[in-house]
Amino acid sequence: MFLQALYEYAHSRHLLQDPAFAKKAVRWIIDLDASGKMIGSGPIDTSTDGKRGKIFSCPRTSKPKNAGGVAEFLAEGLAALFGQDADLKGLGKLADAKRKAREANNAAKREAFRVLIDDCSHEVPSVKACIRFLDAVQDIPPFLCVQDGEWWLTPAAGAPLKLGADNFTFRVAGTILLEDPNVCNWWRRQYRAEIAETAKNVSKGRCIVTGKAGQPILDTHAIKIMRVPGGQPTGASLVSFDKDAFQSYGFEKSQNCPTSQEAADAYCIALNALIDSDDTSLKIGNAVLCFWAKETPEAGILMTRLLNRPAPQQIAAFLKSPWSGLKTKPPQSDTFYSVALKGCGGRVAVSQWIQEPVEQAARNLHRWFSDLSLSIPQRPPSEKGKNDSAKNDDEVVFNPLSVFWLARTTVREKKGSGAKIEAPRPEVVTELYRAAVGGTTPSLALLPAILLRLYALLTNKDYRPIYDESRFALLKLILNRNRKDSDMEIKSGLTANTTDPAYNCGRLLAVLSATQRKAQGYPKGFSGVAERYFASASTSPASVFPMLLQLNRHHLEKIKKTGDGNAYEEISIQDILSQLRPVGELPPEFPPHLNLQEQGRFAIGFYQQLAEDEWKRRTRFVFKFLESTDGDKLQDLTLLQESDAVAFRNGIDSIYGSPAFQEWRKNKLKAAEQSEADQET
Fold it and tell me: Which residues pair with 337 in a beta bridge?
């Protein structure tokens, strides 16, 4: 069904209108005059980012390249143009026999490239300039050199650059040959001749994709799948049988999956198109996920964006009405497809394949975001992280509920300002994507990695757990989907009336930590009870909390002596302890040990208590701000507090993050610091 779905995608999206050409990045243009002499000191760089180069519609051969000695027409690398291996270090590591075979293949590839250009030059005279240039280069052109076992290129403008697996092409007398209509028409005729020749030399059979009988069945599928993480730079095969263990009933190579030329081209072109577009694919670490809807392209694009870049407003609109942003609602007959791929050298492995009605996929995604939802205050502009609005080295923008950032909570953060983000494991990405679009339940085996990273992060003085939405949202989803009837259901906001011991212990640690910080005057970089005892308190509460409660008495006394008042802290602690008392006024009973799921609920309780206290703190500040600036707005918010809690908190967030409030708060802090300095004087 996977190949059939790709075949249908290629036809429905009109990807096969010109199968003789394919989109390909070409970084270097060798500029020639009509006589074949190079203009300038080196090739012209077409890249804007110093990486891939400009995308051109390039001729593509239908001949399989695994046998060697096959080149593309006009757009190729070092081996085809000059017979030089692009990977000199890799070549040097090979045994003599393999090295000589590779060098022979490079020489054959160079000859094949020259033959194609020579054949074209008989019909398109301008192409003869390329032949003259290639014949004039005996070994290495002057703009190339080798340094420390790597190729370096001197471009037409700028300093020398290290050469990657880049493609070259030609411009003759001001015309790029890839864009010359006469050259393109010649190649179309050449491509049709290749197809006809292939059909003569292969057996006939029934195509497994189209079901048509009497079709020429290819031994190998020429088009490679590109840009799959873990695959080869030159591409990888989705259908490949090159070992006896992969073959059945005496069939050889791709005869084990009999596919016609038309179907093979269609599925390969379709999959490459899906991977190339950010609207239909999501690359995370060593995996790539592709999504599309059969009849409604907009529906597939919407769901891809929700998994890749889910903005809070977009999530809210989707939860309210899934298809509100589309021009047309998908028909009930529409089908949603998704696939997870990873590269294994020369092959593409399918990790997961999901096919379901679009409406079912939308319901699963609706449930996904509902399960991830947490009632937390937004991060104010003054506390934005570097990844919130700007891209880092891996070009990943912070989206806390995207699959990438959720999966990233299971891996360690690399230290240092220039450190790249560590990629999540492919199996974790696949599991989360299945939970999102397939409605499955993620394994509890993810919990240890999430919690261990939390323990480590709490020792970082710059870590603010309240803004680690990805970690706690994923914890909430995993715990709720694996919940037994006897376990508490974790809500989006704080559950103050639960008797769950683990959840209440987490809440208690949050309040004890806040009390200690208040007693110490909120010092920066302070390592308190939460940072020191979180791991032990979340696994063996009975061995930690009696000591922490005794220590807390001193903190309460200190707060009382400073005149700040400790009523709120005392009431909060007593309310939580009342949920831990089995009967009446007996001392609270703390669990001796917590299992893995209970440790997760402990962490959620800790987090939601922090969020609730932050909401109350912000509400107090905003009310004070409005008392002195906008009495009408204060009255409206007060009424909203009683009628619509969600709208009320959105209003608090909006005002708290406003420039006017931030300026008011800044002035208040300055005034307090000045007053304290005056008192000391």
Answer: 292, 355
Cβ(228)–Cβ(244) below 8 Å: no
Q: In the structure encoding, which two tokens stand for residue 346, read together?
A: 């020369």
Q: Mean pLDDT over all residues of the chain? A: 88
Extents of the domains making up the chain: 18-200, 493-609, 630-681
Tell me if residue 270 falls in helix, strand or coil. Answer: helix
> Nearest 5°: CA angle at 520, between 519 and 522?
105
The answer to whether residues 649 and 375 touch, using CB atoms and an 8 Å cutoff, is yes
Tell how strand 175-176 and strand 28-32 pair up: unpaired
Residues 6+ apart with CB under 8 A from 497: 579
Contacts of 260 (CB under 8 A, 6+ apart): 207, 209, 210, 212, 215, 216, 217, 218
Per DSSP bridges, beta strands 168-172 and 28-32 are parallel
Q: Is the pTM of the predicted complex or chain greater than 0.85? A: no
Q: How far apart are CA 638 and CA 136, in angstroms?
A: 84
Give residue-wise pLDDT tens across range 135-158: 998 788 999 999 999 999 999 988
In tens, the pLDDT along 26-72 reads 999 999 999 999 999 999 999 988 778 999 999 999 888 776 789 99
Model pLDDT, residue 570? 86
Quote helix, strand, coil % in the chain, to nearest 5: 50, 10, 40
In which element (H, E) is residue 355 found?
A: strand 347-357
Residue type, 326: L
Q: What is the pLDDT of residue 565?
A: 65
Q: What is the mean pLDDT of residues 283-291?
A: 88
pLDDT in tens, 100-119: 999 999 999 999 999 999 99
The CA distance from 397 to 408, in Å, is 13
What is the rounded CA–CA span in Å between residue 439 and residue 555?
47
> To 10 degrees, the CA torsion angle through 494, 500, 506, 508?
90
**Residue 147: what are its φ and ψ, rounded to 5°?**
-130, 125
Q: Is 56 helix (H, G, I), strand (E, B) or coil?
A: strand
Helix/strand/coil for 357: strand
Distance of alpha carbon 577 from the chain centroid: 43
Give the DSSP letter of residue 177. Answer: G
Residues 6+ apart with CB under 8 A from 448: 596
Q: At which residue do the structure tokens 């708060």 appear?
A: 665
pLDDT in tens, 159-207: 999 998 899 999 999 999 999 999 999 999 999 999 988 888 888 888 9
